[in-house]
Amino acid sequence: MPKDRKSAQADSIINSFMKIMFESRRQSQLMKEAVGVTAPQMGLLKMLMKRGSMTHSELSESLYLTASTISGIVDRLEREGYVNRLRAEEDRRVVKVSLTDDGKALATKVSFAILGDMKKYLHELPDHELEVFEDTLQKVLTMMADAPDGIPGVKIHKDEQLRVKS
């Protein structure tokens, strides 16, 4: 494949990912306006509904969010009365997050329509295209995870200014 075409395809793919991220943020804002919580907050409520009480680190790993992001989400949900932090009886150093009755009611009431829609769209792809798409996404994620300096092409210096690598 000619380099110009490959570059144009890469630009198109990146643009599509940016549109998906924008739409995700837009959906999150619409959810916040409708029910008072963002999509990440609802994701945490749904995870607790599905798996029961979890530690911050378990939530972080399951939701692909940093520990500090999980702490902020739990703080907000606790203030709103949707979750509780409880010390584990078997080890008082361990703090588990669990749903309150209000949290259970909200998690039950709200569905993630965008995820259901995405699944529906993916089901419409022919099996071979879906397999190639999945394999390709996994390869890109692996390359990103294996990048020695984090995000390929971007370097965050100690002075916290974002700079493009030369």
Give an overview in words.
By secondary structure, the chain is mainly alpha-helical. The chain has a domain at 11-109: Winged helix-like DNA-binding domain superfamily/Winged helix DNA-binding domain (Arc Repressor Mutant, subunit A, Orthogonal Bundle). 64% of the residues lie in helices and 11% in strands. The chain contains 7 helices and 5 strands; from the N terminus they run H-H-E-H-H-E-E-H-H-H-E-E. The protein has helices at residues 3-35, 39-51, 56-63, 67-79, 101-109, 113-123, 127-146, and strands at residues 54-55, 83-87, 95-99, 154-156, 162-164. The strands form 2 sheets. It has a 3-stranded antiparallel beta sheet. The chain has a two-stranded antiparallel sheet with strand order 4-5. A hairpin with a 7-residue loop joins strand 2 (83-87) and strand 3. Helix 2 (39-51) crosses helix 5 and helix 3 (56-63) packs across helix 4. The longest helix is centred in the first third of the chain and has 33 residues, at 3-35. It is elongated, with a radius of gyration of 20 Å. The two termini are 26 Å apart.
Condensed summary:
The protein has 166 residues and is mostly helical.
